[in-house]
Every structure is written in C-alpha cells, then in structure tokens.
Amino acid sequence: MALPLPPPVFTILSGLVEDRSGLHYSSEDRELLAEKVSPRAIDAGFTSLLDYYYFLRYDPAGEVELDALVETLCVHESYFFREAEQLRVAVSECLVPAVEQGRRPRVWCAAAAGGEEPLTLAMMLADQDLLGRVDVLASDISERALARARSGSYGPRALRALPGGVLGRWLHPSSNGVSADSALIRAIDWRRVNLVDSAVVRALGSFDLVLCRNVLIYFSEGTTRRLAGTLADVLAPEGWLLVGVSESLMRFGTALTCEERGGVFLYRRAR
C-alpha cells in the first residue's frame, strides 16, 4: 500500500533523498517514489509520509533509517560482461601499456552494484596475466550490494551476456547459480563510497581508469555536473573515464576531452 505523497511533501522528501544519494526523482516520479518509500515508512510505524520525512530529517535515529531507505531506492541491476567492449579497450589501451611501462595502475569501479562489473574487469586482467599487477577499487553506496559482491554468489540474470570460456573457469556452478572465483574477489578492494560526497571521493587518491557506467542516468544535471568535476579531479594525468554507452558529459563542459578508441568513446584528463 502506498501512502499519500502530496506535491509539497514529495518536494522535500525527494530533495532529502537526492542530497543524500544523488538519486533524482522528477515530478512525474511522485507515485513511484510513494510506492518505494511507503513500505519502509509503514514498517517504521508511520502512517504519514510527512511525519516520516520529519523523522528522517530531524530525529537522531533518522540518519540510520535514511541510509536504509537509500538502500531500498538504489538500482542494483547489472550483469557480467555488460558493455564489455568498453572494458576490453580500457584493458588493452590503458592498463596493459601502463604495466608495460613499469607502473602499477589504479582502477576505480564506482557504483559497482553487486560486483559484476569489477569482477568482469578482474577476469579480463587475469586473461592478460595482470591480476595482482593492477589495483582495483570497487565501491557502492549500498552495504547490501557490497555484501553480495564479497560473497561472490550470483543468479541466472547476472549471466545473460556471459561469453564462452568463463563458466567453469572464473564462475563455478553452485546450488543457487554460480560463485565467482575467490582469487577474483580477493583481488578487489571493496568499499562503501557515496559518490555525491566529494571529500570522500577525493580522499581515495588518483586513478588511471575510472568506471562510472550507467549511473548518471539516475542523477539530475546539477548532480551530474558536480560529479563530473569530482571525477576529473581524481583522474591521473591522461587518465581515462568511462561512462555508460547511453550517457554523455559533452554538454557539461568539463575539463575532460572526449576521444574514440576502437569504437569506444571515453573521456581523458589532459596532462
């Protein structure tokens, strides 16, 4: 059951969610937000979403509940080898040359959801004998998603783009689907990071490659503009940024330049 969400309450509640997580809900999404928020509000003992908002905003216990609400609202849809050509180009043209130059490149998979993307990257690195020679950080705002990633357990939906040679080598059949090879999981540094917290993001250091794919579609233009600036700040000179194939930063006038490599568009920070 969805509790009533009048426009004024929608405005302040959706604003609170966006400030916390970056997730943007337009006025057309008012009923959708009500449907998603209501179960948590009811479970917390509220029959009014205005009262629930005041609890989230002002009660000392509201901080924990707001994080739990964001967990509910986050979209964790991903699968292995999603938009894989981007990753293949990044490995062959960014990471392989860096290692050949005697460097240890750093990669950040931002908004890693359940871990399918960084584990896909780890498989590609292993195929090039680079696993353990590249530092991979994978983060998400959701502790629940990170717990799933650390467990390495995946169902059939995560396997829908799986190429040959992966099952049985890197993904092992289990009672509920598959389990990722433990060597892949150990090769990744899993951390909780809120992308809209620029101070926390900058404290991560600089990266040769940042993957922030299929994330910007959930943010407003203002949030995307700020995030693009933050991501540019954490890129090493000539570092690469990959966003989803349906996403673009061109209209935001960032310090990054757009390039095409092997049919893949990417953004680079000038030296």
In summary, what is this structure?
This protein has 271 residues and is of the alpha/beta class. It has 10 helices and 10 strands.
Describe this structure in words.
The N and C termini lie far apart (54 Å). It contains 10 helices and 10 strands. The longest helix has 17 residues, at 84-100. 42% of the residues lie in helices and 18% in strands. Helix 3 crosses helix 4 (62-73) and helix 5 crosses helix 6 (116-127). By secondary structure, it is α/β, with parallel strands linked by helices. The mean pLDDT is 94. The chain has helices spanning 7-21, 30-43, 49-58, 62-73, 84-100, 116-127, 143-151, 182-186, 198-202, 221-234; strands spanning 106-109, 135-140, 153-154, 171-174, 177-180, 188-192, 207-211, 235-242, 256-261, 264-269. The strands form 2 sheets. The chain has a 7-stranded mixed sheet.
